[in-house]
Amino acid sequence: MYGRKVKLRFLFVVIIFITLVLTVFLVLKSLEENVVYFQSPSEINSSIELNKSKIRVGGMVKKNSISINSNEINFIITDFKNEINVTFTGAVPNLFEEEKGVVAEGFLKDRNVLSASKILAKHDENYMPPEVKAALEDK
Amino acid sequence: MLYSSIGYYALILGLGISLILVYFSIKNFQNSSTLNTKILSFTFLQFFLVVISFVSLVISFVLSDFSNETVFNNSHTTKPLFYKIAGTWGNHEGSLLLWLLVLTLFILIFFLKTKNQPLKYKLLTLIFQQIIIIGFFLFLIQTSNPFNFIFPTPEEGMGLNPILQDPALAIHPPILYLGYVGSSIIFSSALAATYLNLVSKVWASHIKKWIIASWVFLTLGILLGSIWAYYELGWGGFWFWDPVENVSLMPWLALTTLLHCIIVLEKKQVLTSWVIILSISTFTLSMCGTFLVRSGILNSVHTFANDPERGLFILVFLFSLIFISLFIFFFFHKSSPNNSNSFFWLSKETSIIINNWFMMYFLSVVLIGTIYPIFLEVLSSQKISVGPPFYHKLIIPFLIPFLMAMAIGPKLKWIKSNIVDKFYLVLFFAISIVLSFLIVKKFSTNLLINTILVSSALYLFFITLRDFFIRKYSNISQNIAHFGFSLLILSILLNNLFSSEIITNLKVGETFTSSKTKIVFKNINQKQEKNYKSIIANFSIENINETIEDLSPELRIYNQPNIVTSEADIKTTLLSDKFIVINIVQNQDYFNVRYQVKPFMLWIWISVILISFGGLLSFFKREHEK
Questions:
Q1: Same domain? A25 vs A58
Q2: Residue pLDDT, tens place only, B263-301
Q3: Per-domain residue ranges for chain B?
Q4: Phi, psi of B358, rounded to the nearest 5 degrees
Q5: What is the pTM of this model?
Q6: Nearest C-alpha of chain B: how many angstroms from A123?
Q7: Count: domains in chain A
Q8: How many CB pairs under 8 A join A and B?
């Protein structure tokens, strides 16, 4: 009834459509699982349920809060309303300093302690992660 | 002062010439059949003016003329001469001027080198290219003038961000821009060809050269950025799926797809619409990258200043370009009538279409991962980040069929084909599986997926390797590029599987001991350089097999701006890199030490160079044939 060309074209469109649907499905599902949310110390403090997945916490490194031993580095992130203690094992970026902006990535142990596996590098002395800027502007 | 004025007025004149050129081109387009010689002279004059403007900015940097705001913000008298010059494009304004320089250079080359194409096509390409050039002129003059004055003239400049003071990063922007801007020619030319209904085999073989050239530059540009990130950022990796890296990867993926399907168009006069769409999207993605990076939406080392006005300008410009190109595509594009429908499932064109599907899939993954966080923040003000696991999960499984198709595809013939050499194809497959099983078994936990991955990469490796020795498949440039790609994937996989890392905090004189490695922090030396103070830490690493390695990473404390950077010390051998980087933590005696053993690092770089070499070869091969 239909020519070979039409059939081929129809097949082509169907395959493209299926691929598209599959792609969208895969991507969305994977996004759901692998997204890291950003929270400020205040948001963590006021949250009803503790976030069990990996999160990022941003704010300022509190003055005189950095302490270090051979295994880990401890410091406090503050957004000037609430604070959170961070225990960190790993390499620190160059511009990790007290009273400078920082973003730590890891899991919450409880409302006050973050066990971080990554501290994000800044490239520029004036640079502040956008999340930190927003968190500080809210204060 | 003087040079800033020269540079500024050269820019204004250049913009004027753009308008003149558009006027002449339109007139010439309507009336005559011979090229108006004025057009060529004006194109040359425009290029010359932008060169003057660029050179005067370089001179301002070399002379440390701090009455120029750009120089003041990004330079310092104690900076070495090399970085004074490289600093010219190490900032927003200067890098845009460089972009403009390449734009005008390329349209000139286009005009001089394009011989056997209709006059109308050349003129129309020039008009589209001038529209882009006018956009960049306006953008520079309006929002990012590199020649602003400061009064009174400051005594000293603010300095260049120290992590940009690096040889690889000095040449990374120009090379990358050659790739980006090359795609603008492809864009203009595709639009012109669509308008004139010229999308044909002849056009394909003409524009293919531009595609290959841009692709080679883009590949090398990304490579340089990656090498720099490896040794300068101190994370010991080469690709972080950072949004800024992704925006350079996206045009590369689109361009690679275009590179493959232009071959089909050249041979068979099919896929015309697809080629045009790809040409448009490659350039759009390059522009998108510029928009995302320059507007301050993505924060990174590339974001020199966050100015909403700039972002808005690029956004409006970008959307007008997209609008124009879609308009032309929908109203003027006629699919060619002799569209042959003799697609047989097993043929070279099918394999290229398969390649295109995979590439488009990879492109959409990267695109969504990059822009989804931005959209989410705008829509729901939730802040998220999409990390490497997302990309790995979505891309790595699909590499398996991709690599297999890459091994078999080039062996197929046009139109209709049989698989020849079945014996070798099966034999190599078996060898790859056994070999990779043996490699992976020793170390890894994820046995199944890793074995399959490594074996598909090995498969491509063996097949392309064998093809070097038999003359039957004589497309040597394609073979080199595919061989390079197999080597790249193989090195990345093995690198990931066998990397090891020790992170610890040590005081001077202390020793870290693990089951396999002993790290001795011997002492530190201090040195005063021209624009920084350097602390060199001396380590000796004792491995389990009694070999001792001395490594001396360095910390640099720059004077202006006052920033500390870590310089990793890397011992590179053919089989593995030993990488050590240190950092100080404020007011503490401890140094943060990161020691990594990274197998096959060198081969990652070599394989990318091989890939671009394949492109280079095919560029010159085409030249000889004509």
A1: no
A2: 888 888 888 889 999 999 999 999 888 777 766 666 555
A3: 1-165, 500-602
A4: -65, -45
A5: 0.91
A6: 6
A7: 2
A8: 113
